[in-house]
Design brief:
The protein has 101 residues and is α+β, with helices and mostly antiparallel strands. It has 2 domains: 1-40, 3-Layer(aba) Sandwich (YefM-like fold), CATH 3.40.1620.10; 43-101, no CATH class. Helices cover 61% and strands 15% of the residues. A 3-stranded mixed β-sheet has the order 1-2-3. The termini are far apart.
């Protein structure tokens, strides 16, 4: 895996595309932080690669939500408590929307 800055990508895009075409993965950085990922693909692989990236993102978000729920003690809520919270949130949303009309 190679790293290039946004500026390098603009100035030397031909070199970067050659590396991607050769099978390398490129991390594009902006202000020293990862910004984008360039990975080689083929038309027959595109959907599988996108699905894998989306699944990894979804899995990370679920893990973060679970961690937050544990930190706040929400993982101990009963289904009745959850249902009550959902009902209250829906009621508040209806009231906000009704008040704006």
């Amino acid at each position: 895996m190679d790293f290039v800055t946004v500026r390098e990508l603009r100035a030397e895009s031909g070199k970067v595309w050659q590396k991607v075409e050769a099978g390398e993965e490129i991390v594009v950085t902006r202000n020293g932080k990862p910004f984008a990922l360039l990975v080689p693909t083929a038309p027959t692989e595109l959907e599988d690669k996108l699905r894998a990236l989306r699944w990894a993102r979804f899995d990370r978000l679920i893990s973060e939500q679970h961690k937050r729920s544990v930190e706040h003690g929400l993982d101990k809520m009963t289904m009745e408590e959850i249902d009550a919270e959902v009902a209250m949130a829906r009621r508040e949303r209806r009231e906000r929307h009704a008040g704006g009309r």
